Amino acid sequence: MIVTRGLVYRVEFQFPAGCAGLAGVIVTDGGFQVWPSTLGKWFATDNFTIGFDDMYLKGSDPFQFDFWGYNLDDTYDHTIYSRIGLADREIFQARYLPNVAYDMMQEELKIVQETQEAARTAILETPFPWIKGTRKEVA
């Protein structure tokens, strides 16, 4: 599955009725097993959707997840449906990562402070902009 850079916040695997635990799936990222998180374990069930929240940051190439499956049913083929929720921009990731939200808020506060300081300086330099002429210093 091709993905973008971002934060995986939700993962779901839907096993239709009839799988009877005979079909399973794992997901890897660059050869490393990501889901299920226990190495060597597989998701396998029947007529059930396995879904969970996660915080998996996909920040480097390759931007894809590899799905590996098996089917031990000698009579029927089975299809397992997968869904991944991924926040690709920091503004969306901030919902799931409070430290990102904090950093973004600090940047915004810094911009507001700089804007207010520039306005204050402008007022001090010309407190009465309707008066024409140069400002004379009092000795």
Automatic annotation (TrEMBL):
This is Uncharacterized protein. The lineage of its organism: unclassified sequences, metagenomes, organismal metagenomes.
